[in-house]
Amino acid sequence: MPEAPQSPPSLRAKAATTCLMVMTAVATVFMTQSIFLEISTAFQLDIARARFAFSVASLCYAAAFFFIGPLADRFDLPKMALTGLTALWAAILLASVAPSFSYFITAMGLIGFSAALVPASMIPHMTLLAPPKKLGLYVGAVVASGTLGIVFGRVAVGLLTAHLGWRVAFRIVAVLLMVLWAAAYAWLMETTPRRQPAPRKLSELYLGAIRLVCTPKPLALFATGFFLFFGFLGMVTFLTYRLTAPPFFFTAGEVGWISLAGLTALIAPFAGSISQQTGPYKVSLPGLGICLVALQLMGWSESVPLITLGLLLLFAGAYCCQPLIFLLIGASVPKTALGSASSLYILVCIGGGSLSSMVLGPVWALWGWPGITLACSLSLAMAAGVLGTLAMREAQGNQNALCR
């Protein structure tokens, strides 16, 4: 039976709770990015090795989406999210008492995998909550909340670590997860829209997910996300090394403060809304151009205000694109495969960012910050090339259809 229409206050509360869940889950994956120095000191290892705390968490986060995506087409979405929050709470407490770096890395892997349950279920869930005329706004909001999670993780844990130490910071995040679990249970488990589960077997759902990767348009959009996040997150990850080195010598707290520039990701809901009037390519392609300009500001300047401006533009440009690529993917796959498609897209995005933190390590060692800037700029240029080619082909196809 169809659900009764929800009142605007109830709808807004459910949407806000959904966004908070995604933001907090994503924050836990990125919360080590601003405290590499403190992790290296705590476990007495070289600071370059500390980046694996993020790499392992983000790789497990990305890989989890392949396994979780088809499940999101089959099982109850709010229950999946609550399960993820519970597992995430336990994993963070384990990390906070880690006696060795290997133990800590294992806990970070569990954090990454558990965190993936939340956006994998809540992003498709938001499409159920959203009124059709505001779909772009709502999808943009939940995508922006994921980016705010990157900012929140870097800023909050950086500042808490500077004052209380990273172990206490992790425990505070665990308490926040408990509060959020209670709010999510209260708002999402009652009178929330449910979609009919996919009628196919799980094996067929996984095969369907693999077929999506072999379909030209979704494949091109996945490739765009991969190159975008390789360049975007690669630059953001190594910015910590840049700012803690000469001539800046930033502390964890100062790295946290400058990360507030990522709040420009709040542009995502507006980009999603505007795209419903102008078309997604007219917003996303200029967004990639802004990202390329931002990388040059960050890469070739030794001025903190210019680096901050570059970071502002980088997040703004990336999140002009991100919700629109989600919308394009949603329009190119059957609704019964929406969970798989959105999860695969997150997989390639975060997988690209995770690989960048590992692959760019030798680049940093050999060529330093200029090498990182060039590599990330090339990756973003490839994203623009793939998306631009897709836009031209669609425009040609539409023109040919009109001529018939």
TrEMBL record:
PROSITE patterns linked to this entry: MFS
Residue ranges annotated for the Major facilitator superfamily (MFS) profile domain, each copy included: 11-396
InterPro entries the UniProt entry points to: MFS, MFS_dom, MFS_trans_sf
Keyword line: Cell membrane, Membrane, Transmembrane, Transmembrane helix, Transport
Any one GO molecular-function label of the UniProt entry: transmembrane transporter activity
Subcellular location: Cell membrane
Cellular component GO terms held in the UniProt record: plasma membrane
Record bears the keyword Transmembrane helix: yes
Lineage top rank: taxon: Bacteria
Topology in the lipid bilayer: Multi-pass membrane protein
Record bears the keyword Endoplasmic reticulum: no
Main location: membrane
TM helices/strands, residue ranges: 15-36, 48-68, 103-123, 135-156, 168-188, 219-241, 247-271, 283-300, 306-331, 343-366, 372-392
Family: Belongs to the major facilitator superfamily.
Record's protein name: MFS transporter, YNFM family, putative membrane transport protein
